[in-house]
Write a structure and sequence with these properties.
274 residues, ten-stranded mixed sheet, two-stranded parallel sheet, 9 helices
């Protein structure tokens, strides 16, 4: 069962008239960021309600197709077939807006002595071709895999860019959110996981090498913004058509210097260096 996290804020008294409402649904990676944007925006615009719901990027895109959300938050680009489906329904292409940048970090337990892995080694671990840390230079311990559910944009991005579209091993434990993956690795010395770079409590990031001869790169601001971190990505809003009214005003806030400063506070990276 998909875990939905819904928060509704109301800062005004109704006098018989419905307040303008903006709904955002989708990526669990982005749900905290979306909540922070909504909280701050509604302090300034107490006449507008912004509702934030998670569930995964796939869930958000499905909601956009059905017309049950104003904004889809997605941690991966829409697929061609999803774009075509929306155009068939609406007669228009979806509107894609990059709102922040992120690096998919590979999580290790704080006591794991391993410092770096190549992209190929990470792929072999998640395909179960490597099952003991000793095989990649670590301790003689079985590797315990933590992953995301397949409706997650992070799952799909990782599969495409790290596993090169090959299947994950069925032995990975699939969890409903990035926070769950990070928490599981924090409790398991043998564990490995992946997710947004904003989730760092109780774990540490593994340096990622493009190949055996490359240096290990960590998912920090400089490396993500200049593209040297090998698993970097944009985070997106998708709309069914051009933004209007409260939706347009909210997106303008997200892209403003104040909105982008919230990106940094949550642990992701603004579109441009401040």
């Amino acid at each position: 069962m998909k875990k939905l996290l819904a928060i509704t804020f109301s800062f005004f008294a109704l006098n018989g008239a419905a307040a303008p409402t903006v709904t955002i649904k989708g990526s669990d990676t982005m749900v905290i960021l979306n909540q922070r944007w909504a909280e701050r925006y509604m302090v300034e615009r107490s006449d507008v309600v912004v509702q934030v719901t998670g569930g995964g990027s796939g869930t958000g895109i499905a909601a956009l197709l059905s017309g049950s959300t104003d904004i889809c938050a997605s941690s991966r680009p829409m697929k061609d077939k999803e774009r075509a489906a929306l155009k068939e329904l609406t007669g228009r292409n979806p509107v894609e807006i990059s709102v922040a940048k992120d690096g998919i970090a590979v999580y290790l337990h704080e006591e794991n002595p391993l410092k770096e892995l190549t992209l190929e080694q990470v792929a072999l671990i998640y395909r179960r071709k490597v099952s003991n840390w000793r095989e990649v230079g670590g301790p003689d311990q079985k590797i315990i895999l933590y992953s995301r559910e397949n409706n997650s944009g992070t799952y799909e991005f990782f599969k495409e860019h790290v596993l090169k579209k090959k299947d994950f091993t069925p032995y990975a434990q699939c969890l409903p959110g990035t926070a769950s993956v990070a928490n599981s690795v924090a409790r398991d010395k043998r564990g490995i996981g992946y997710g947004g770079a904003a989730y760092a409590k109780g774990i540490r990031f593994c340096g990622i090498k493009s190949d055996a001869n490359s240096p290990g790169i960590y998912p920090n601001e400089e490396n993500i913004l200049d593209g040297t971190y090998p698993i970097s990505r944009d985070l997106y809003f998708y709309l069914r058509g051009p933004a209007e009214g409260a939706i347009k005003d909210f997106i303008a806030f997200v892209l403003s210097s104040e909105g982008q400063s919230i990106v940094s506070k949550v642990g992701y990276y603004p579109l441009k260096k401040p």
